[in-house]
Design a protein that fits this description.
- With 285 residues, the protein is an alpha/beta fold.
- The protein has a single domain, classed as Rossmann fold (3-Layer(aba) Sandwich), CATH 3.40.50.
- The chain has nine helices and ten strands.
- Helix 3 packs across helix 4.
- Bound molecules: adenosine-5'-triphosphate.
- Adenosine-5'-triphosphate binds next to strand 2 and helix 1.
Length: 285
């Protein structure tokens, strides 16, 4: 359990600690997330086509793929927001659809298209979220103060969420997702629309969180970011997993994750030069 993250006590909603890896990292932990034969179809569109994933505990995990690959659909099913057509998902050994309460007490989620209670202030939002999570009021106050401070939102804590910028919304959403000290944190595009200063802040918080034994799973298109942050990567394209493993395994002999990614999704050397021959100052209007 990553309790030292915010100097918090153990979460009363958490019945037992999973325990971090040993200093030498030798002790094998059960996977944080296990996905088996997961499918989702929207009409004629197969968004997720039978994926299997085993996401190791205590790692910073990147789920990458081109637009429309099925990342959001996968994360929505894994976090219990969208019912799969077929397949199973386990978080910490608990089935997401058979045992949703056990799973939801162990996870934090920053979904795509984050919906927040807009007419609350940032501070009120955290207070409300903490009480919904069953935390005592004094503990919620303490953790909220620390999170607002660390995420550089203390000066805006009494502003209504509706008046927050995109980056501030991501940060207050992240604070709400972390408040109950989850074992696994799922983030859909956490750095999109976030300025470099805020991105560095978010990054520091997440690095500290994983260093204490917790697991972060995040989706992104930004390969440099994934390469610099993640220990473990899953590459998705057209609803399937093309590769999964440590960063070194997925990168293979390619010079960068970006190049490995382009190979894996079949986009290397794609030519646009001839098709757009009308585009540019020298071309006929
Ligand atoms: N509610 C829905 N109804 C119909 N089709 C959907 C729905 N949600 C997703 N899809 C389709 O499923 C496929 C996967 O979409 P998804 O949003 O999971 O991809 P993604 O990898 O998250 O993409 P992006 O990186 O662009 O956010 C796409 O073809 C998309 O159009």
């Amino acid at each position: 359990m990553p309790d030292q993250t915010f100097d918090g006590g153990t979460d009363p909603a958490e019945p037992e600690a999973t325990g971090p890896t040993t200093a030498d990292g030798e002790r094998a932990l059960p996977p944080a997330v296990r996905v088996s034969d997961l499918w989702k179809r929207f009409g004629d569109q197969i968004a997720v086509a039978g994926i299997d994933l085993e996401l190791p505990a205590g790692k910073f995990i990147g789920l990458v793929g081109p637009n429309g690959a099925g990342k959001t659909t996968t994360l929505s099913m894994v976090t219990g927001l969208l019912r799969p057509d077929r397949g199973t998902v386990e978080v910490g050994g608990h089935d997401v659809w058979r045992d949703p309460v056990a799973v939801k007490s162990r996870i934090g989620v920053l979904p795509e298209g984050l919906r927040l209670f807009e007419r609350l202030t940032g501070r009120e939002l955290l207070g409300y979220t903490g009480r919904l999570r069953g935390l005592p009021g004094a503990e919620v106050d303490k953790r909220a103060t620390q999170l607002l401070d660390v995420l550089d939102l203390a000066g805006s804590q009494h502003k209504l969420v509706v008046d927050y910028s995109t980056g501030m919304r991501k940060k207050i959403g992240l604070a709400a997702a972390l408040l109950h000290n989850p074992e696994v944190l799922f983030l859909d595009e956490p750095f999109e629309g976030v300025d470099p200063v805020s991105a560095a802040t978010i990054r520091r918080v997440l690095e500290r969180y994983t260093a204490s034994g917790a697991t972060v799973v995040f989706s992104s298109h930004v390969m440099e970011l994934v390469e610099s942050l993640c220990d473990w990567v899953a590459v998705m394209a057209a609803g399937r997993i093309r590769a999964q493993g440590t960063l070194a395994e997925v990168r293979g002999s390619a010079s960068s994750l970006q190049n490995a990614f382009l190979e894996l999704v079949g986009a290397h050397g794609r030519d646009t030069g001839d098709t757009l021959d009308w585009l540019g100052g020298g071309a006929a209007r």
